[in-house]
Specification:
It is a single chain. By secondary structure, this protein is an all-alpha fold. The protein contains 4 helices and no strands. The protein has helices at residues 4-27, 35-63, 68-91, 100-103.
């Protein structure tokens, strides 16, 4: 079978795919927008989020007395609410109707 290290990448990749599809089709309902730019932007945000989670966790462990499971929860929650979720709103924003500007003029 697979070792935990070997199984880590496909499981993380599967989780990111489920997260993207869930955000695009159910959370933000943005299937009317082009798929490729959303994939690219989402991948960049997730890459930066990964790095931020690592850095925040490291800083919490180094500079606070917080126990590491709590530090992980605090760090992930901080990155999610202050970085990932706000950017997902931008990535998965609904498409504008073609005549939306004319409706207000």
């Amino acid at each position: 079978m697979f070792s935990p290290g070997q199984a880590n990448f496909p499981s993380l990749l599967g989780g990111v795919i489920v997260q993207f599809v869930g955000n695009r089709y159910w959370v933000f309902n943005s299937e009317g927008r082009s798929l490729a730019p959303q994939i690219v932007a989402f991948s960049i945000v997730e890459g930066v989020s990964f790095a931020m989670n690592w850095v925040v966790f490291h800083l919490l462990l180094k500079f606070t007395p917080v126990y590491y499971p709590l530090a992980r929860w605090i760090g992930v929650t901080f990155v999610f609410f202050c970085f990932s979720y706000p950017l997902w709103h931008w990535i998965f924003r609904p498409a504008r109707p073609e005549n939306s500007e004319k409706a207000f003029t």
